[in-house]
Here is the input.
Amino acid sequence: MVTGIALSVWGARRHPGPWMRWFSIALAVLILAGWLGEYVADVILGTWSIQYTLPLQLTDAVSAVSIAALLTRRQLLVELAYFWSYTASLQAVLTPDLGQNFPSVFYFTYFIYHVGAIVAASFLVFGCRLYPRPGAVWKVFWITLGWTAIAGAGDLITGGNYMYLRSKPVHNSLLNLIGPWPWYIPGGVLLGLALLLLVAGLTGAFGGVPDPRGARQPALR
Here is the structure.
């Protein structure tokens, strides 16, 4: 992950060119392969379940948004990919709630689309200089709450635990520091907002970070 971030950002800043479009396409395909590959594996292995494997986790939204952002460069998609990957995806990489270890196929699919989303966001924001607009953090926050409401409806209908709204992850995470159900849910909202604001500070998203060459979003060469 660190190597992918460093090389993609360095390459985009120092050597912009047509390779950036091909890199975006290849990374989008890789994320898609990992994301959809997990569902294919669930079907083949007979572990697919309406309670656990519908695309209602926030990381599902991150994967879809990251792919779309890489292919379209639309500003809102880039902002969602950046804020979500640097909070939700990074947390998922550092404290994975994964029941399978190497060399399980789920080990590879899980880390491919989580790490891929983080690399994609870093490449787009810090490499291509598609910095979040002023106030973007609040727009992302409300969209996140909207996605949470969708996941909550899915939980009620299926009896599942999408976005961990019914119980905490089996493995340790930041939610373990916030108390029992249901109190960890509002606590998690506040924690999520704090992380979004922290990530916003990395790019000066409150006021925007202009391109030092004078162009906020330079065209890809």
Remarks:
- Residues 210-221 have pLDDT under 50 and may be disordered.
